[in-house]
Amino acid sequence: MNFKSTIGLEVHFELKTKSKIFSPSPVSYGAKPNTETNVIDWAMPGVLPMVNKNVYRLGIMVALATHAHILPTTHFDRKNYFYPDNPKAYQITQFFQPLACDGYIEVEVHGKKKRIGIHEMHIEEDAGKNTHGTNGFSYVDLNRQGVPLLEVVSEPDMEDPEEAYAYLEKLRKIVQFTGASDVKMEEGSMRVDTNISIRPAGQKELGTKVEMKNLNSFDHVRRSLAYEQKRQEQVLLSGGHIQLSTRRFDEATGKTVLERVKEGASDYRYFPEPDIAPDHISQEWIDEIAKELPKSAFERYDDYVNKFGIKPYDANVLLQTKESSDFFDAAVAAGADPTLAANWMNTQVNGYLNDNRVNLADVKLTPEHLAEMIKLIQDGTISSKIAKKVFAETIANGTDPKKYVEEKGMVQLSDLSVLEPMVTKVVDDNPQSVEDFKNGKDRAIGFLVGQIMKQTRGKANPKVVNKLLNKELASR
Amino acid sequence: MEITEDTVKHVATLSRLEFSDDEIGKFTEQMGSIINMASQLQEVDTEGVEETVQVVDRDTVFREDKPEHWQGEDRETLMENVPEKANGFIKVPVIIEKDDNE
User: Fold this and answer.
1) ipTM confidence score
2) Where is the signal peptide (chain B) (predicted)?
3) How many distinct structural domains can be found in chain A?
4) CA A21, CA B53: separation in Å to the nearest integer?
């Protein structure tokens, strides 16, 4: 018997704001427990939530980037539940009138293009973080309470784990390049829940679905769906039935494990949030945000490869993060040769970031300085060897490359009136090298270049020296 | 809507509360009379009337995205209500089960 799978994904993104969605508490990653909270996050009596405008703005960016219809009027609702991660005993979310609906993204799987629908997306608050101890206690940190989230709910349009994987990759790239979220699964700024059901081919109505929550990586999403697809098939083939349930992926065994069976629908008793007035989203505001929307990764890729002639592999490396792509764009805008800039970004800059375990935002290198340094190499002022020294100084201390080169006397020596006598002398002093050269030993030149470099402390322009040496040796 | 003992038990479970049989009987009666009183509203003809989500006379009230740090005494006052704490965390009895949230 053949089965068809139906997969839907719910993805939560932490929106990149400076303060929380309903309170002015700061949002940052890794602060001491409970320090980034105030009376609103603690749900003290009498406090009132007030909506952070930037949360809407970032949400609208993602809606625009996924071709979703933005609702002209939205309001917030209360989702009631009792758990120590949320002192209010309800989450403020958008249940009845979400931010946007009916979007889509296009993926390419098995060589075929497919459009996957986005049912709706809404903004809501995150809950605090519970750490479960082994001693019968849990430890609550409310710093995350009130951090803004955007939940993107797909249509159940995916038919196999590969499509789900492709959808996630694409969605992450889209959201990442709007700048709305850091999209880091390891830091929890992107979280994925999946649901999957199967049904015999030809049957119209969907099977009973199984949900999987808190998946740690895209790979886990793919593997857990593949496992679950097979498991459900075996259950049905052996005459069993699928339970409406939540399962968890066990990394060690690659299997999914039953977490709990659901009995009927959850009872959250949603109702409109009385403390927050409804919000009208004007077309003017949407148009304004659309104008600020950064170029997508896909447009940038096209520019890099087709306009700048950068190799596809290098273009993809630049596009791994919005930060590196933005940095590269700024360097090119500051006059850097795109191919050279791409090489420097992908080798030296990334190497430095990896070695020092820092982000581009943490280093003192500016796109202008990188562009300046590349210009110094191109016009022959410094050799690429010296450039590495200049680069090390600039990225570590933010020193202006041009000034540094001048102050340290690193300017490359290309002056013929200085180099010509040196070349004559070095050839005179090394008759063996002349002999070797005549016998076709290329290494002879290398030795002589080395001698000149030694005398000039690496400042001689290697191109010029090579040319002069060749001329001199040929004339002997 | 009729309030039965099962309704009360269901609401108690959702609220993580435990009641004795006597209390359940008492609450069933009390909740019943409250709901019945409110049920009178059902008699009003609301055909074609748009639902009222908000009664305040304003909308689209936004705040700028500016963080405010709570420092010193203010911050410590927040932790004063915490029955038990450990290393800056709020210490609570472990509850792994969470009704389907997150």
Assistant:
1) 0.87
2) none
3) 3
4) 20
Neighbours of A19 (CB within 10 A): 23
Q: For A357-373, write each residue's pLDDT tens digit.
A: 999 999 999 999 999 99
**pLDDT digit string, tens, across residues A222-276:** 999 999 999 999 999 999 999 999 999 999 999 999 988 876 667 899 999 999 9
Dist CA A255 CA A260 (whole Å):
16
Q: What are the structure tokens assigned to B3, written together?
A: 């309030």
Contact indicator for A449, A472 with CB cutoff of 8 Å = no
Torsion of CA A240, A243, A248, A254, to 10 degrees: 10
Which domain CATH number covers B13? 1.10.20
Whether residue B76 contacts residue A34, with contact meaning beta carbons closer than 8 Å, is answered with no
Nearest-neighbour CA in chain B from A166: distance (Å): 23
Give yes or no: residues A386 and A337 share one domain: yes
Q: Does A24 contact chain B (CB < 8 Å)?
A: yes
| Å between A68 CA and nearest CA of chain B | 21
Judge: A91–B88 Cβ closer than 8 Å, yes or no: no
Residue A276 near residue B56 (C-beta atoms within 8 A): no
* Residue A62 sits in the same domain as residue A127: yes
Q: Name every residue whose Cβ is closer than 8 Å to that of residue A68 and which is 6 or more positions away in sequence.
A: A62, A100, A101, A102, A103, A118, A120, A121
- In the beta sheet, which residues pair with residue A91? A79
